[in-house]
Amino acid sequence: MSELVPEDVLEGLMEAWSKKGASYVECRAEVEKRTVIEVRDREVRRLDFGISAGLALRALVEGKMHFLTFSLDEADVPKAKSEEVLPDKAWITKSSLAEVEPVRDEVRIRPAKAPVEVPVEEKLEMAMEAHKACFSEGVKTASTLYMDFTITKRIVTSEGTDVIMELPYALVRHEATAEVEGRLNSHRAVWGVLGGLELVEPEEVIKMGEETGRKAVEGAKARRCPSGKFRVVVDGDLNHLLAHEALGHGAEADSLRIGSMLKGKMGKAVGSPLINVVDDGRFELEGVKGFGWIPYDDEGISTGRTVIIERGVLRSYMTDRTTASEFGLPLTGNARAQDWAHPPIVRMRNTFIEPSSPGEAMSNEELLEVLRNGLLLKTGRGGQVDPIRGTFTFGVQEVYNVEKGEIKERLSSTSISGNILVVLKKIGGVGREFDRPQISAGFCGKQMQRVPVGVSGPWLLIEEMLVGG
User: 290 vs 78, which has greater pLDDT?
Assistant: First the structure.
């Protein structure tokens, strides 16, 4: 792919490290084009454009994994030849890689309205109009973030893999804070897509802005949500939050090195038999890709659907080539890097809880009927997790009282907490209707790296959840 790195440079890098004794060499060239617009209280506070381009090289020499980075204009053979092989030290962990079949492929998402081809004036106009929609009586402050980034990368290995990908992303996020009779409440909403701006319709993000402001005001007016243990139904966004944050990080195989609540539990029941927990690299819902959709990971491994928990039983961890080899696990294609300046590590993609038996899944209305009396919890907001113990605390933006199976009074925002392995066993019903993946688009941070992740999921009935303080 000559627009990234000339073929002779790639060949030279491979040859230089092979002569140093490398049994494996991997080159990952990447170009990212990005636009960021931030509007706060009707004023543009940030307008950035940028291009990041570089090459990451990994070489395995006598069990020691070397990682080097170059800007594309310095990715020449002389620099590679000047780098020295790491000496043997007691603190250097030896690595090996799971065996793979090399693959050659090219995957380019070609949207009807590519973000890189849309004038910034049009993006700014959409962001401003959507931002203005956040304001209504009671809203004191609001912000809107618009961002798009298109990543083009090529992964070439000494084993024969040669993969090219071009992935465009776009995301809009609103946040509004309202004050009613001295009571404050904030609400945040997201719309993120992998594809073109034809999937970010101005009418949709304007409507989202209106709802963000309205829900902020409603929350400020609402009666305080009671605290205690309740039967609850949670929406698709909270489904994703429980699957990804509370459980998922403990299912990333590199966590087994330091401790995980799932360590030693392979083949054991860790949840209700009504559920599967899935991490899917190619998740799509009605033609809409999850924000964590990737056809290949950053080791050039084809992605797919990884069932972490099946019918309540732990069946798999998520792996890269190193952890698959280290722990004798199947390779799942979960190696991801933020960009060319970072090494790939085990990361999630699109993570969610689904019904283990679709025939037993219920509609949202049926879940509320079974709940009868309790709380409906919608849209999460940040929190804390301990993947070693499995404990979590998450914010919940919308709470509704449910009486006799009907949604009644809006209550104030609150929090939920517990141990994920206890909560998973208390799931008494699973919906069949996935919430839209666009509303759960976001970025996950780990080891100083952020990568795009999703997705939402069906509603869940949980027999007991600690709500509030």
Answer: 290
